[in-house]
Amino acid sequence: MTISADNSNKERVYIFDTTLRDGEQSPGATMTLEEKLQVAELLDEMGVDIIEAGFPIASVGDFEAVTAVAKQVKNSTIAGLARAIPADIDRAGEAVRHARRGRIHTFVSTSPIHLAHQMRKTGDEVIEIIQKTVTQARNLIDDVEWSAMDATRTPIEYLMRCVETAIKAGATTINLPDTVGYAVPEEYTAMFRTIIEKVPGADKVIFSVHCHDDLGMAVANSLAGVVGGARQVECTINGLGERAGNAALEEVVMALRTRGDAMPYYTNVETTHLSRASRIVSAASNFPVQYNKAIVGKNAFAHESGIHQDGMLKNAETYEIMTPESVGIKATTLVMGKHSGRAAFKDKLKELGYELGDNAFQEAFVRFKDLADRKKHIYDADIIALVDDEVGSIDDRIKLVDMEVVSKTSGVHRCVMTLSIDGEESEVTFDGMGSVDAIFNAIKQGVGQDPHLVLYAVDGVTGGTDAQANVHVRLEMNGRIASGNASRWATPVQSRAPSLVPGALRSASKSM
Length: 512
Ligand SMILES: CC(=O)SCCNC(=O)CCNC(=O)[C@H](O)C(C)(C)COP(=O)(O)OP(=O)(O)OC[C@H]1O[C@@H](n2cnc3c(N)ncnc32)[C@H](O)[C@@H]1OP(=O)(O)O
Ligand SMILES: CC(C)C(=O)C(=O)O
Ligand SMILES: [Mg+2]
What we know:
With 512 residues, the chain is α/β, with parallel strands linked by helices.
C-alpha cells in the first residue's frame, strides 16, 4: 500500500477546523450547543490542532457556544472570529480566554472590490485598521491570527503591505484566504512563495490557507498553498461551508497521508476517526453526504463493476489507494448489480453459504444478470431466491389481474383484488387500517399464505404529485425472506395501481 506513516523528513501541517464557524455558515446548517460540543469533542480527540468554534459577536448563542467549547476542549487551540472592529475583538477575547489555548482570529477585506463596496474604505485606512485591531487583539492574547479577506483578488503589492502591518502589530498566524474560490493552484502557490520570500518578518509567523470550493478546487488550492509555504490548512468536515463549501478536512488529511511521497508533509490527525466525524457532522448539520464524496461517501470504498470486483478479490490495491480501515470504515463493499461479474458473484454465493457446481453456477449467474437488468438494488435475499430450486415456479402461477383501493379520511380502507392463480381468476375484498394494510390482507387471503411484512418503503423518484415512486417490499415467512420492488406513477386517492403490487408479489412468491 502506498500509505506511509513515516513522518521523518516531512514537515508538519497544522489543521485548523472551521466546521463550527464557516461550516455553520452554510444555509440551514445551524447546530445546537450540544451538537457543537459533541463535534468539538470529536475534533479534539482526532488531533485537530485548532478548532474555530464560532463568531462570538454574531449572537449570544454563538458567544455561549465558543465559551462552552473553550471550557470543555482539552488539547486543541480554540479560536473565535472577529471583524476588524474593537467590540468584536473584545467579545472574541472574552470567549476564548476560557480555553487552555485560546486564539483571536481577526479579519478584514483587502481586495479592491471589497474595499470599495464592502468596507467603503481606502487602502491606507484599512492598513491603519489592521495595525490597530491586531495590536488590540495581541494585548488580549498571545495567539492572534489575521486574515486578509478576499486575498486572492488583492494586488500582491498591497497584500504585502497588509501582511507586513499585521506581522509588525503582533499577528502570529497570517491567513490568506481564497474567500470566493477564485484561485487556481499555480497562482495560489506563487502568492505564498512571493509573500513569504519578500515580506519582512514572514519567517516568524505561520502562514495559512483557507479555500472555498466555488470552482471545485478548494482541496487542490489548499495543497498548492502548502507547497508555496503555508503550514496551516483551514478546512471543514465534509467540506461544509459558505456557498459551495470549504476544503474538506478528510480530503486534505488523506491526500497528505496517502501521497506523502509527492508532498512531504504530515498532520497530527488520527484518520481512523474521519468516517465517524463525517457522520456526526452530517447529522448535526442536517447535510447529507453525497454518495460519491471522496473518503467518507457511501461509495468511497464500494465497487460494483465486475472487472474492479475481480481485481479487488485478487488484491485490494488494484483499485483502492487507501484502506477503508484507515478512515474508520470497517471494510470494502462489493455491491452486487448489473455490472458485476462471475468472480464477485461466486464470492457472494460463498459468503451466503452456497457452493454450486459449474453448471448450476452458470445458470444462477445468467439468472442473476437477468434480474440485475431489471432491478436496481440486489439484496442478499434476491440472490438466495435466485439459487433456490423453486425460483420462478410460483412466478407464473400467480398474476394480479386487477386491483382497486378505496381510502377514506374516516373509516376503514378497502382493497378489491382479482388474482389469477394457476389460470383461475378469483376476486377477494379485504379491509385494513390503511390502504397498504388492506392490500396485503387481500394478497394474504387470495394466495392463502401469511407472510410477515418486514419492510415497505416508498421512494419518490421524481418531484411533484404525479411523481414516479419506487416501492420496496420485504416479506418473511418460516425464516425465509423475499424482497421485490416496482415503480409506478402516483394516482388519485381512489386508485388502480396494479403494478405497485405485482413486483412485490412476483418476488415474494418466488421464494415462498
Ligand atoms: C468570509 C467570511 O466568512 S466572513 C464571516 C461571515 N460570517 C458572518 O457574517 C456570520 C455572522 N454575522 C453576523 O451575525 C452579523 O453579520 C454581524 C453581527 C457580524 C454584524 O451584523 P450587523 O452589524 O447588523 O452588520 P451587517 O451584517 O448588516 O453588515 C456587516 C457590516 O460589517 C462590516 N464588515 C464586514 N466585514 C468586516 C470586517 N472584516 N471588519 C470590519 N467591518 C466589517 C460591513 O462593512 C458592514 O458594515 P456597515 O454596516 O457599516 O456597512
Ligand atoms: C473569515 C475568513 C477567514 C473567511 O472565512 C474567508 O475569507 O473565507
Ligand atoms: Mg471562509
